[in-house]
Specification:
Layout lengths: L15 E6 L15 E3 L3 E9 L7 E10 L2 E6 L6 H11 L9 E8 L8 E17 L11 E7 L2 E4 L13 H12 L4
Length: 188
């Protein structure tokens, strides 16, 4: 039986992964990609207004360039040696004396209801490099972990190929049977 839109439940935002992929190298270790929050997955299209001559009541909106927001990731402060921290420090200390080494960052939204079934959506950020590294304030009045925020600029992002999305949502057989019985009026 086909599912209808009213039966669709959007995925949860707490089950995701982040990979930082160096050019031609292996990904950063998993502890470098364990983030509690990702934000800034956003693109907008500039428009230019052109006023039509002779018809003063018309203004045309013409599409322009795409603008991408910075990507921001947050995690508990890593005090041990970290490839991500080394990359950030190298980028910030070189003062453009040496070439910045951009990387590819992949953010993947995972299916929390289907263990190991894979990705629902992924965003691949090309030519990413850190532009801000911030550590949360220390406050003796609060019992909070120290959080580091890392902001990345990038050229653009693309949506990745995610075959797991075609099977979402995964409906357990007993729920599917209950749904079918409800639709057909069968109470047995």
């Amino acid at each position: 039986m086909a599912w209808v839109f009213s039966d669709y439940t959007p995925p949860v935002g707490f089950y995701f992964s982040v990979e930082i992929l160096p050019e031609g190298g292996s990904p950063f270790p998993p502890n470098d990609a364990a983030f509690q929050e990702v934000s800034g997955i956003s693109v907008s299209l500039e428009t230019e207004q052109i006023k039509e001559g002779g018809q003063n009541r018309f203004t045309h909106q013409v599409p322009g360039r795409s603008n991408y927001e910075n990507l921001v990731v947050k995690r508990g402060l890593m005090v041990r040696s970290s490839e991500l921290a080394k990359w950030c420090v190298t980028t910030f200390r070189n003062n453009l004396v040496r070439k910045i080494e951009p990387k590819t960052i992949k953010v993947t939204l995972l299916d929390a209801n289907a263990a190991g079934k894979g990705a629902l959506m992924s965003w691949i950020f090309t030519n990413a490099y850190p532009v801000k590294w911030e550590v949360s304030s220390f406050d003796a009045q609060k019992s909070e972990i120290v959080v580091e925020n890392i902001t990345f600029a990038y050229s653009y992002f693309e949506l990745g190929d995610n075959p797991g999305a075609a099977e979402y949502p995964h409906i357990p057989p007993q729920l599917e049977n209950a749904y079918r019985n409800k639709r057909t009026g069968n109470t047995g």
